[in-house]
Amino acid sequence: MSLSVARPVPTFPDVRQRAKEAGLVCRRIPAAAMREVSPTSAAAFRIIFGILGVVALVRFAANGWISQLYLEPAHHLSYPGLGWVQVWPGWGMYLHFALMGIAALGVALGYRYRVSIAAFFLLFTYAELIDRTTYLNHYYLVSLVAFIMVFMPLERAASLDSRNAPASGKPATIPAAVLWMLRAQVGLVYVFAGIAKLNPDWLFNAEPLRIWLYNATDTPLIGPYLRETWVAYAMSWAGAVFDLTIVGWLLWKKTRLLAYAVLVVFHVATAFLFPAIGMFPWIMIGLALIFFDPDWPIRLAQRARHPLGRFPAATAAVAGPREAKHLSRPAVAALLLGAMFLAAQVVIPLRHLAYPGDVRWTEEGYLFSWRVLLTEKVGLVRYRVTGPTISGERLAYPEEYLTPGQAERMAYQPDLVLATAHIIRDDFLSHGHEGVEVRADAFVAYNGRPAARLIDPQVNLAAVKPGLAPKPWILDSPG
Q1: pLDDT tens digits for 235-254?
Q2: pLDDT category of residue 167 using cuts at 50, 70 and 90
Q3: How many H-runs (helices) and E-runs (strands) does the chain carry?
Q4: Cα angle vertex 341, ends 106, 119, to 5°?
Q5: Cα–Cα distance between 142 and 124 in angstroms, integer?
């Protein structure tokens, strides 16, 4: 015999009270988002972003990458539907990057800020979209951050624009939603990078860190330790825990300073051990400062007794942020658009779940998903070309059409293997051959596994159209 205890059924007043409380919470969130806070943290974000942009562009030009990545290739592997994004002729690409540098400097100085950041976003993103083989996670991050900065009032402090603005007698402020948006964009990188590390290779095989650390054993002082298997496992787990939790520690005021110190050590270590990742560690170190209080630059200046700490507008903003009394329609629209943008940033990294197979092997949904330092892949491709006017079977190799860098990166990405097959097809067609068929012998090794076939060798890639649908001609992962 069992006894059951009847639960009290909520009365109509109870339901009404709960609905009232829920409505109050829903109203408080937008009001808190539009709360006026000091603009100095956002200004520091703008200055750091602009300076990093200038440094990156100088580094890019000094290494000769403008010529190497854009002018030397005979062909560029474009994104689907973006084949119209082409290299400018002659000295056009040098002018393009020079204008980008000027725009980045304008962002840092806060000179005609909206024009500068809009120009930087368009110029940077255009260059990024020319060739798929130049994709890097931090390039994508820079484009996203630059895009949302276009709509943000980050010039209200420490800018040439604010100096030239007429004095209103009121301290300069910005909506708290500006900081929320920037924090969310930076935080999403860590969260999804951590989620991506929750796979057997990373956690139980310490791959690909074990491969990379073994290749770094000539590092002074710590080199011999990098051979140890336990070091690879410890760093793999530490990396996953760091990515999954660092945003929470940065948001909690009691742990924020220590968390940021750990963040700096983490990124400096990755920059030291893996220099090929370029500017990524420094970008994250600089942008993560947005998690500190809105007035942290002023407080820092006050402690250092710097003149910046005596600015009356900044001091007034530090004294106490003001709550928004009511929300205008433009403010509500801005909050809704911001929420939709962040929702898209959550969905896009998860789109690989709509595809069959292991995303690390198929690469379907791999890009734009913050899968940072997750796989070590090496590919080898050759093409077999046949046709009615071709005697027998001709072999074609990617290096005949692409630069060494392009050939290296395309060899393990199925859609780029397809794009290269189309380049070969078009080349044969231009030489008077008709009915050309192109098949690929593509082998890929990743995360320490033996090389295995990536593409069905019987499929005529010349007849396959690129698209976002699942690709049945990609063979199953070796496991």
Answers
A1: 999 999 999 999 999 999 99
A2: low
A3: 19, 6
A4: 20
A5: 8
Q: Which of 245, 228, 261, 229 is nearest to 194 (CA)?
A: 245
Rounded distance, CA 347 to CA 352, Å? Answer: 10
| Distance of alpha carbon 30 from alpha carbon 275, whole angstroms | 42
Report the C-alpha gap between 374 and 211 in whole angstroms. 12
CB 86 within 8 A of CB 74: no
Distances (CA, A) of 390 to 109, 395, 437: 61, 11, 10
pLDDT tens-digit map of 95-145: 999 999 999 999 999 999 999 999 999 999 999 999 999 999 999 999 999
Task: Give the span between the Cα atoms of 377 and 267, in whole angstroms.
Answer: 23
Q: Which residue has the tokens 């198929």?
A: 362
Residue 337 has which token pair?
A: 């658009």
Can you tell me which residue has the tokens 């049945």? 472
Backbone angles phi, psi at 220, to 5 degrees: -55, 145
pLDDT of residue 452: 96
pLDDT, tens digit, 9 for 90 and up, residues 339-375: 999 999 999 999 999 999 999 999 999 999 999 888 9
Average pLDDT, rounded, for the chain: 90
Q: How many CB atoms lie within 10 A of CB 255?
A: 13
pTM: 0.90
Nearest to 190 by CA among 118, 285, 303, 312: 285
State residue 312's pLDDT score: 45
CB 174 within 8 A of CB 416: no
Alpha-carbon distance of 433 to 452, in angstroms, equals 32
94 within 8 A of 64, measured Cβ to Cβ? no
DSSP calls for 87-105: PPSTTHHHHHHHHHHHHHH
Nearest to 102 by CA among 86, 119, 90, 80: 119
Please state, in angstroms and rounded to a whole number, the distance separating the CA atoms of residues 176 and 441: 55
Which residues pair with residue 394 across a beta bridge?
385
Instruction: Please tell me the predicted confidence (pLDDT) of residue 140.
Output: 97
Give the Cα separation of 303 and 298 in Å (integer).
9
